[in-house]
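Predict the holo structure. Ligand: nicotinamide-adenine-dinucleotide.
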Amino acid sequence: MAEDRGQVMTSNDSSAGAGQPIHFGKKALVTGAGRGIGLAIARTLLDEGAHVTICDLVPERVEAAVADLSRHGQVTGGVCDVSNPAQAERLVAQTNSHWGGLDLVVNNAGITRSAPFLDSTVEIWDLVLAVNLRSQFLVGQAAARLMVASGRGGVIVNIASTNGLLGEAGLASYNASKAGSLLLTKTMAIELATRKIRVNAVCPGFILTDLAFEGGEDPETIANYAQNIPMGRIGDPIEVAHAVSFLLSDKASFITGTEIVVDGGQTCKE
Ligand SMILES: NC(=O)c1ccc[n+]([C@@H]2O[C@H](COP(=O)([O-])OP(=O)(O)OC[C@H]3O[C@@H](n4cnc5c(N)ncnc54)[C@H](O)[C@@H]3O)[C@@H](O)[C@H]2O)c1
């Protein structure tokens, strides 16, 4: 086993044994998990044996999500604006002290604001960049500092988007935030590789969540949009959660600084 070389990048020393779920005993934090993709990720991690802390900006979503998730395992939740430095730091510290460690972090919280480039505003730019990108820096840095200090390392997954790979009209700030997420991911991966911390991104394509509907699309438009996806449909949050779970697991022990695209083939065609 390559462990003898001291470079195996497992998330910590308590890897799941035979017959145990892949995240058995791991301590996880998922941001923006009051609904949508984050909620599916938290549920998946719980089903796979992790203890999970979730946060969201909206108190009612936290309450409802914790009630749902508590049927799946040990979960705590709190209200947090992850774009706020003090709140992000407190979130990570409280997660760590509650579970007695922090192994897995998913930076999922995100928003969109649609506006033609010529009409967009600096307020939209600052808000979207803060929620989508600054939060990943803040939570990622606070978590990585703890992981380094513990000596156990860990794994971080940043939720980016296919909009970080290709442009889409009307979403300048969103596209820029997600492209930024991808290079933040790579830079963190390089700097943290020898500290037993892996950092990767997941790029969802069009996934059926409230966020997709808030973009103004009605069901008919969504159905039409699906015609442009080689697989002929839009995605389900659980399909993103499965990719995240894989990257967080020791099955991805030699994978860092890259992204998995979960888009039904949308970005592979002209
Ligand atoms: N749905 C898609 O098609 C799609 C595609 C690509 C990428 N993504 C990304 O996936 C992630 C999740 O998206 P979703 O579709 O589940 O969205 P969603 O709106 O359903 O869920 C996002 C959650 O994040 C929370 N949130 C917003 N701002 C926050 C903040 N400052 N602090 C803490 N929580 C905050 C929201 O309250 C919400 O509950 C986002 O980063 C999004 O950009 C989604």
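Residues 31-32, 34-38, 55-58, 61, 80-83, 108-111, 131, 159, 161, 204, 206-207, 209-212 surround nicotinamide-adenine-dinucleotide (CB under 6 Å). The radius of gyration is 18 Å.
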